[in-house]
């Protein structure tokens, strides 16, 4: 039985092949790319279900690849790096990565992250029906298609950005603690930081708000977290 297709982008061939062998043993289809240019060409050609993406790559680095993929697709992206500073940069730039793993890592941990990302993505994109789309103000949030329209135009969202937006909008006018949002979206991630929620909310505001500094949708509830309003 053929399972989901995973693109592994890693210039260290031994690591790439180790990841491939471990994932294939769990019945995933795996494609390898060893530089950034090959990665993007392979992504467009193969349309994978998940991308495992190293940061330090020849030709085009992982940050730029992540940014490019995210403008085209909400597919889960799991980033790899040997440096903690790179993880901070991922969060700070809000590039749209859904998870990250620092090297060295255990194949078992990586597999658990992959399985969790695919499961959550599949659940959100297949268990909803078109009638479950939320229309609030000038926003249309459709979990069946995993799309967001802002003032009639489609705007690309990462998986995590979409999950946060949909969770907030589904709890209209309710103050939700950052910890609660984090648990709902990143509950499996033992290395997580609730500041990730703040970074993602900032990116969401940039996409949906006409004036992110004076938001009409996502209101900050000081000392607690955020509340989604009706956009009036």
What does this structure look like?
It is a single chain. Helix content is 43%, strand content 21%. Strands 2-1-3-4-5 form a five-stranded parallel sheet, with helices on both faces. The chain starts with a strand and ends with a strand. The chain folds into two domains: 5-126, Response regulator (Rossmann fold, 3-Layer(aba) Sandwich), CATH 3.40.50; 130-228, Arc Repressor Mutant, subunit A (Orthogonal Bundle). It contains eight helices and twelve strands. By secondary structure, the chain is α/β, with parallel strands linked by helices. Helix 2 runs parallel beside helix 3, helix 6 (159-170) packs across helix 7 and helix 6 (159-170) crosses helix 8.
Q: What would the average pLDDT be, to the nearest integer?
A: 86
Encode the helix/strand succession as letters.
EHEHEHEHEHEEEEHEHHEE
Q: How many domain units?
A: 2
Oligomeric status of the shown chains? single chain
- Into which percent range does the helicity of residues fall? 40-55%
| Class from secondary-structure proportions | alpha/beta
**Largest sheet, order of strands side by side?**
2-1-3-4-5
Q: In angstroms, what is the radius of gyration?
A: 18 Å
**Looking at CATH, which topology of the largest domain would you report?**
Rossmann fold
Give the overall form.
elongated
Number of strands: 12
Number of helices: 8
Summarize the structure in short:
By secondary structure, the protein is an alpha/beta fold. Helix content is 43%, strand content 21%.
Entry keywords:
232 residues; alpha/beta; Rossmann fold; Arc Repressor Mutant, subunit A; 2 domains; 4-stranded antiparallel β-sheet; elongated; Stage 0 sporulation protein A homolog; DNA-binding; WH-like_DNA-bd_sf
